Give the backbone structure.
Amino acid sequence: MSGPPRKPTAWRRMEGNRGKKAWNHAEPVPPKGVPDCPEHLSEEAQAEWHRLVETLVSMGVITVVDRAVLAAYCQAYGRWVEAEERLKETPPLIKTPSGYVQQSPWLGIANRQMELMGRYMAEIGLTPASRSRIVALRSEPEVEPLTIRIIYQDTDGTLTDRQGNPIDEAEARTLALPGIPDKL
């Protein structure tokens, strides 16, 4: 697929769907929770996982189904750290047995892992620019239940509720019933 990556539906709704393209009204909502750290990650990658996972979950960016993208970022980070450590021990350019000068394999590995990290960082909002483009999952606001109370007024002006309980003047004012005069 060419062109810019697809925007999340929530993002398009927030913007007002400028392109007027239909969106998926049945888009799945992932379950909330903290994903487990995969055991196959290197020690450095696991440290990065534990440094980030709680923060990303609290931001609403990562859920249990996003384990793989976070693991991929952390593994790329771990390999990048390893390559950078090896580069401290060897020069960035080496001479081959035939006399040619070439780039150290560790420099290529470090550069490739930084590219991968950049892609994953944009996906999960680890850079300031990418955070401005991500729509995080928000918890539903708590809504108080709506209580409907039907009030009847007899011909003599007496107010009662549906069960026949009388409504006094003070209660009628707190209900702000339209058409009720200030003085009953």
